[in-house]
Structure to design on (535 residues):
């Protein structure tokens, strides 16, 4: 035992640990740099670069590290590049680790929900802001365990550097054992040293994971690291808050108000004189051989509320996404506020960065059917973050605006909750508040209740009802809720097979549909149960 302990502290072996760490550090640092480049090439939009990155991965993942070490040390001198043993080992380990690290990084990025990326685009985030604020924080948490595992693997693989005479721990252990013939004690001590090194890497990995754990503490920074708690701000009365009842639901959910028919008629007559805010002309869109939108025409005037009805697959969601340019039509023109979103005044297509700025300037908000909240941000941060990153508000003003809107939707007490700790109805109300935060000119709602349990539908519909009753906001709402459409919509547009089959005042379309497909849809959806529809 005394001899074993002697080897644990022997300077000859401890110096070998230094070389082991040097080679490992070179390999991991270089592998991370090249891995980022390879991952970016594969995630980018240039097929040639992606092909080069995949070719690199095939070569260096498909050949043994020991051959790469020999090539770096013995073959490179033939072309005039002579490296020391440690440098050659670091270069070989770098080349070997890069494709593995690239795949870890790429898997973390593509693992972020596509809906969150769509939400960021709809909020006007540029690709850089989207990557920095939404994708990277979530990807980092996903890749830390895999990177920790790769670091341990690299540390163990560094022992192969002994074949090119790097005096690292394995080579020095072998040399010492050959001279003393005490193989067991020396290699047992060497193995324990490796175990301590890999254990330190594992502990570091666990500490990083714990630091990035979103459920630790109540206050979090934008990237999820814990920050010192600060005194809660009191939301000012930026806008008249909706009264709340109980701990969770808007008061209006207890007794939904139904606008009187003559009141809606007055609103419609006033809005008929308003300017056209959304102008869709001859819009055509197909996915492969399937036509989704077949030369659709639609005008929406300022302050008007239009309900889009139709069976699933009729093109309602695609139409809304084309309006905010999350999808681009194959033909036709979409204008919002007189501007053709996605195109410059000269007709050229804008870059993703320019499109993001234009979305923010035109003021088109969208609420998705699956919420698409940013999973790593709290309810308050989901609203305040885009106000800072896109619209340039200060942190204090953004927080004030967020708390005010949370109060309006009855969720101020859940400001510090992560999306996964909220019910579906709560998440959708926060999504509505986020879309309203920058005061949009047009609000698009894509089946806002389709992903909710039946008992949660009404609380979301009541928030939208209150928005409609306040007036002034132009809204297009895709929905299957006929009573809701009757209550809030000025006009109904019915789509079938990508074509507008019928449109007109809400009460007229619901009570007296003219097109057979409209009548059949309303019959299937139970329109006859709406006995109080004005006739």
């Amino acid at each position: 035992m005394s001899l074993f302990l002697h080897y644990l502290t022997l300077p000859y072996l401890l110096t070998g640990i230094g070389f082991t760490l040097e080679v490992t550090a070179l390999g991991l640092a270089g592998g991370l740099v090249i891995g980022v480049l390879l991952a970016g090439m594969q995630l980018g939009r240039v097929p040639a670069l992606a092909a080069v990155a995949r070719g690199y991965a095939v070569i260096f993942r498909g050949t043994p590290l020991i051959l790469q070490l020999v090539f770096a040390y013995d073959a490179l001198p033939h072309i005039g590049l002579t490296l020391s043993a440690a440098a050659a080992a670091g270069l070989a380990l770098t080349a070997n680790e890069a494709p593995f690290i690239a795949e870890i990084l790429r898997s973390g990025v593509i693992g972020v929900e596509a809906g969150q990326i769509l939400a960021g685009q709809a909020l006007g985030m540029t690709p850089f802001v989207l990557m920095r604020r939404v994708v990277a924080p979530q990807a980092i948490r996903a890749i830390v365990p895999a990177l920790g595992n790769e670091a341990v693997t690299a540390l163990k693989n560094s022992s192969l550097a002994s074949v090119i005479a790097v005096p690292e721990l394995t080579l020095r252990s072998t040399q010492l054992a050959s001279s003393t013939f005490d193989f067991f004690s020396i290699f047992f001590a060497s193995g324990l040293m490796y175990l301590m090194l890999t254990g330190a890497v594992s502990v570091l990995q666990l500490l990083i994971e714990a630091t990035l754990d979103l459920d630790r503490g109540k206050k979090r920074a934008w990237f999820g690291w814990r920050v010192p708690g600060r005194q809660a701000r009191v939301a000012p009365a930026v806008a008249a808050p909706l009264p709340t009842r109980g701990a969770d639901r808007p008061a209006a959910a207890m007794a939904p108000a139904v606008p009187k028919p003559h009141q809606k008629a007055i609103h419609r007559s006033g809005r008929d004189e308003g300017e056209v805010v959304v102008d869709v002309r001859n819009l055509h869109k197909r996915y492969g051989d399937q036509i989704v939108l077949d030369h659709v025409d639609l005008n929406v005037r300022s302050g008007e509320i239009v309900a889009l009805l139709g069976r699933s697959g009729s093109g309602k969601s695609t139409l809304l996404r084309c309006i905010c340019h999350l999808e681009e039509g194959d033909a036709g023109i979409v204008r919002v506020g007189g501007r053709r979103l996605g195109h410059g005044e000269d007709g050229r297509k804008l870059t993703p960065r320019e499109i993001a700025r234009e979305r923010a300037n035109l003021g088109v908000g969208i609420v998705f059917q699956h919420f698409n909240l940013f999973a790593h941000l709290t309810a308050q941060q989901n609203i305040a973050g885009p106000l800072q990153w896109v619209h340039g508000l200060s942190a204090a003003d953004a927080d004030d605006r967020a708390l005010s809107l949370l109060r309006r939707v009855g969720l101020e007490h859940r400001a510090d909750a992560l999306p996964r700790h909220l019910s579906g109805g709560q998440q959708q109300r926060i999504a509505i508040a986020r879309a309203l935060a920058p005061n949009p000119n047009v609000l698009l709602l894509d089946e806002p209740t389709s992903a909710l349990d039946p008992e949660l539908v009404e609380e979301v519909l009541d928030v939208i009802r209150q928005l409609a009753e306040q007036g002034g906001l132009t809204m297009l709402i895709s929905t299957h809720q006929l009573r809701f459409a009757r209550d809030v919509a000025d006009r109904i547009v019915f789509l079938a097979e990508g074509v507008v089959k019928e449109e007109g005042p809400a009460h007229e379309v619901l009570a007296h549909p003219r097109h057979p497909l409209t009548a059949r849809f309303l019959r299937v959806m139970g329109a006859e149960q709406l006995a109080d529809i004005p006739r």
Remarks:
- The mean pLDDT is 83.
